[in-house]
Design brief:
By secondary structure, the protein is an alpha+beta fold. The protein is built from eleven helices and 16 strands. The strands form four sheets. The chain has an eight-stranded mixed β-sheet with strand order 1-2-12-9-14-7-6-3.
């Protein structure tokens, strides 16, 4: 299986490595360097690749190893047990093996675990206080896997703290001054549950999204298991028959088809021994051209970070949400992205200081709406997947003449009038 890889994150002894200076791979950033160096490197990486790796990040190697081991135990459970935890049209959380990316089935199994609606992990997962737009978490019983839930929660919280730290440096890279991190506030208060307060020297307008990310984020941790795929031997899913070309067999599947992440940023732990993640590199940043696919070779003990759509909107296009994909491989493996997402009620728009200096590139975008419609597209084929290009400014008159105005601007208004974010949504609402 894919659970035997040992990651050494270097808490006790500082790791060093050489950066990818030849421009053929995203950079490797040492978080133990001076803050000014790290901020500049992160801003540069977000503005070009949209991807980077971080080392000396402070997350315990023992915790990562334990999380990967428990994840392997989960995917080793009998199929009928995993299917009993399957997500459905009214609950975006749980197990699945049939996700669509760009209307193509992915070659993987996975389980999604998200921040509880109550923000209190000590409550029972099905407690009414835990209801939220994404639904309820579904864990295997303690009788089956007694250490699975505690390990996942501890790992989730470690990713949460690292995401907060990186988001703040991304903000500072845009000139938004944020005074403290989640970890700083916990140390000052002595309260591990303190959410802290984020303040910006340029006012709360600019630091606002970072504050909401910390206090109201709706992040989720996805653990992926990729079965082995051997061309010509491994049978394909029936759904791939739809992708046959005349006279040809179906194309080989991808672990995950090309896509961009929807949220603010992603923290990914890869399998060190299987290099299957690729990021698209476009000449002069022109995404209308055919990309060169660059493999991200994981450094032992590193996390791979990429920016998402909401960061691209907030940075007014300065930060890139990169197109990426996952290839199949002949060996099974596990990876786990932590999606650091805004609060459901958050409206993402260009940071105020940037909007004062330059024309806004995007209309305001509701994360709750964007997330709900994106999940509906992942769960079942409802047509073209929602993208932040649906919220671009500046083409309204031209679009009205052509009859191509994005329907999402109108639908978002109706959604916000009708939605209660404390109630799990039903996919049928978004068809």
């Amino acid at each position: 299986g894919g659970g035997g890889t040992k990651l050494r994150c270097g808490n006790s002894s500082k790791m060093t490595t050489t950066a990818n200076d030849d421009g053929t791979e995203p950079p490797i950033i040492d978080l133990s360097n001076t803050e000014a160096e790290v901020i500049a490197q992160i801003a540069q990486a977000c503005s070009t690749w949209g991807f980077f790796q971080v080392i000396n990040h402070g997350v315990s190697s023992d915790l990562v190893d334990e999380f990967k081991s428990e994840s392997q135990h989960f995917f080793d459970l009998p199929r009928h047990v995993k299917l009993s935890l399957k997500r459905d049209a009214k609950n975006a959380r749980g197990y699945f093996d049939d996700e669509l990316t760009k209307q193509r089935r992915d070659w993987k199994e996975a389980i999604d675990i998200g921040m509880p609606g109550s923000r209190d992990w000590s409550l029972s997962d099905d407690d009414e206080a835990n209801a939220c737009l994404d639904g309820f978490n579904r864990f295997p019983s303690d009788d089956l896997l007694p250490n699975y839930r505690p390990t996942v929660v501890k790992y989730f919280e470690a990713c949460e703290a690292l995401s907060d730290r990186i988001a703040i440096m991304m903000a500072r890279g845009l000139g938004v001054a944020v005074e403290s991190t989640l970890e700083d506030d916990k140390k000052k208060s002595g309260d591990d549950n303190s959410r802290g307060e984020v303040r910006g020297e340029k006012g709360d307008e600019d630091a606002g999204l970072i504050a909401i990310l910390r206090e109201q984020h709706t992040s989720y941790l996805r653990t992926n298991y990729y079965p082995p795929y051997i061309p010509g031997e491994t049978p394909l899913p029936d759904s791939d028959e739809a992708h046959k070309k005349d006279g040809d067999g179906p194309p080989p599947p991808l672990g995950i088809s090309p896509h961009k992440d929807a949220g603010f940023l992603t923290v990914l732990v890869q399998d060190d021994d299987c290099h299957s993640l690729q990021v698209a590199q476009f000449e002069n940043g022109d995404e209308s051209l055919v990309p060169t696919w660059r493999t991200v070779h994981p450094v032992t003990g590193a996390f791979t970070i990429n920016t998402g759509d909401m960061a691209m909107i907030w940075s007014n296009g300065r930060y890139r949400a990169p197109l990426h994909r996952v290839l199949t491989a002949k060996t099974a493996r596990i990876s786990a992205p932590f999606f650091y997402n805004p609060g459901c009620g958050q409206i993402a728009g260009p940071a105020a200081s940037l909007a004062r200096m330059e024309k806004p590139m995007y209309h305001p975008c509701s994360w709750g709406y964007f997330r709900a419609v994106r999940f509906a597209g992942d769960f079942t084929n409802i047509g073209v997947e929602i993208q932040i290009s649906d919220f671009l400014c500046g083409r309204e008159e031209e679009e009205e003449e052509e009859g191509t105005v994005s329907p999402h601007l109108r639908r978002q208004e109706a959604f916000l009038r009708a939605i209660d974010f404390a109630i799990p949504f039903d996919i049928e609402q978004y068809r």
